[in-house]
Structure formats: structure tokens, C-alpha cells
Amino acid sequence: TAGSTAGPNAADWLLTPEVFGPDERRGFAEWLSKPGCRTAAVYYDAIPLKLPAITWPRSVGRHPGYMKQLARFDRVLAISNASRAELLGYWDWMRAASQPPVTAFPLGADGDGEPRATHPDGETPGKGLLMVGIVEPRKNQTLMLDVCEELWGSGLEFELHIVGRLNPHYGKPIADRTKNMVRRHRGLRFHGQLQDKAVCDLRARCRAAVFPSLAEGNGLPVLEALWHGLPCLCSRIPALEENAAGGGCVLLPVADRPAWVAATRAILSDDAQLRILREQALSRSLPTWDDSAAAVAAVLSA
User: Fold this and answer.
1) Does residue 248 sit in helix, strand or coil?
2) Which residues of 143-177 are buried (b: 16+ CB within 10 A; e: fewer)?
3) Helices (H) then strands (E): counts for the chain
4) Phi and psi for 192 in degrees, rounded to 5?
5) Most buried among 31, 110, 151, 281, using CB within 10 Å?
6) What sign does the dihedral 204-206-207-210 (CA atoms) show?
7) Furthest-apart CA pair in the chain: how many Å?
């Protein structure tokens, strides 16, 4: 009630979606030992532990304590089955005295608010490739630059559109190389960070999306591309394998340049393969953010 100073009661839930550490939440660990309500957290991934050399130092420093503290919650919601297995494996490794239930829940593919794509039969696809993600080594823009430079050198004409904000710690060398290549290859476009509408406009000009990531917790941009009927080339890593399972995707070995060159050439040249992948992308089931909310509500009401 208005003006009440009463704290939470035993039937209430505290749900925290942020990654946190002692510096961000002073006293939180002590409160968590006796919260007076039920507690739940969203878990994303262990990328700072897997790739510490190319992850923000602050994230690397706080992540072990964060993953340990998650074991003190009543429920944890993981953003993929891959991240769920990862967290449970970490707790087993650290021999956590107690492990709360961890439930994987879907992330919505409809985040830009646009309706699900429908393409008329016979529509001519563009000759562009779209790569969306923060500019950093984990997303592996460098591999796509290598792949596309080889294909441009062989005479293949197409565009590569790179979209994403710059990682302030590790992104500059990638951005510098990209800007240098723009001067030599008219097909390369480096857009930086864009609003949703601008990304949607780019998708309409592209033939496929590319995601050569080294690691992902979910790989949401893959689902968002599929929502718009855009086939995807993806690294064969657990989270992206989950996203690819419904169709519309080609899975490729991580950082295998010859495999990526061959698959990229095929997606740009083989209209029959592209048509099959597009049909799969348009017909498959994809989660919405309403589905995400319903899944979270189901966990908290169980």
C-alpha cells in the first residue's frame, strides 16, 4: 500500500536479469542469505571464463563470483539449453553445496516489432550478406573479412554489411582493418551501430546473414534474421546449433576458412539452395517475446 515500509513477503519474487558483482551490488550477498522472498536470476553465458583474453577485463574479474552466487538463488533461468548445461557443469566443477533448478527459456525473435516476413514466390534475392553483432574478436568479423576478400579476389560480386557497436577494449583493430578494406573493396560496408529500422532495411537488401562466432550464450541475432526470412551461415557451437535446429541455417566448423569460403560462395551463387533455406526460415516455428514472458511466468508460478 502507499506509504508502506513493509519489505517483500515469502510469496513475492525478486527476479534479476543483470550480470552482477560485489562492486555493483554492495551488501547483496548478505541480503541474499536472508531475502524474505523468493529469488530468481537470468543466466546468460560463461564467455568471460571461456575467452578471458578477448573479454572486457571487468567482466572477467567479476564472473566467477557471479556464477558462484547464482547457486544461492531459488531459481535460475538460462537463455539456452547450452548455457544451462554450462552453468550446471560449472557448479559441479566447483562442487556447489546446493544447486537450484535451472530452466532454459526462449528469447524472442520479434524484438524489432516488425511482423513475421512473408516473401512472394519468385522474388529475386539481393547479393548482400549481413553480419550483426558487437565488433570484437568473439564475433569473428576477421574471418568474414578474410573470406570475402578471397571471394572478391576471385571475381564474385556481392556486398558484406557489418553492423554493430565497437568493443572499446578489443574492437579497434577490427574496425581499422575494415575501414582500410573499404577503400579497396566497394562491396564492403561498415555501418557501426544502427537503429532497428535501418537494420531491417539492410536485411531486405541481403541474401543471407553470417555468424562465424567463437562463442555465444544464445545468438539472438540468428533468430531475428530468421524472423525476417533471411537464411544464416553459423558456426557450429552449441547455442547456434540450437537456433539452427528448426531449419534455415547452414552450420560450419568454427574458424575453418576454407569451409566458410565454400559455404559463402554457395549461398551467393546457388539460388536453389537459397530458396530451400528461405522456405525453411519462413515456415519454421520461432519464439516471440510473449513466449519468453510466458515461460518466465511459468517458472515463477510453479
Assistant:
1) coil
2) bbbbbbebbbeeeeebbbbbbbeebeebbeebbee
3) 12, 10
4) 70, -150
5) 281
6) negative
7) 72
The C-alpha cell that represents 213 in the structure block: 562466432
Distance, in Å, from the CA atom of 215 to the CA atom of 140, rounded to the nearest integer, reads 10
Q: Which three cell numbers stand for residue 80?
A: 539456452
Beta strands in the chain, from DSSP E residues, in sequence order = 13-16, 38-43, 75-78, 102-104, 128-132, 159-163, 188-192, 206-211, 232-235, 249-252
212 contacts 190 by C-beta, under 8 angstroms: no
- What is the rounded end-to-end Cα distance, in angstroms, of the chain? 26
Give dist(CA 249, CA 211) in Å, integer. Answer: 10
Q: Which three cell numbers stand for residue 7?
A: 519489505
Each residue of 72-128: pLDDT tens digit?
A: 999 999 999 999 999 999 999 999 988 999 999 999 999 999 999 887 655 667 899
pLDDT band for position 5 (50/70/90)?
low
C-alpha cell at 177: 582493418
How far, in Å, CA of 290 to CA of 106, rounded? 10
Q: Please give the distance of CA 265 from its chain centroid, rounded to a whole number.
A: 24
| Alpha carbon 5 to its chain's center | 40
pLDDT tens-digit readout, 227-286? 999 999 999 999 999 999 999 999 999 999 999 999 999 999 999 999 999 999 999 999
Residues in Cβ contact with 209 at an 8 Å cutoff, skipping those fewer than 6 apart: 129, 130, 131, 132, 203, 221, 222, 225, 230, 231, 232, 233
Q: For the whole model, what pTM was predicted?
A: 0.93
User: C-alpha cell of 125?
Assistant: 534475392
Q: Over the Cα atoms of the chain, what is R_g?
A: 21
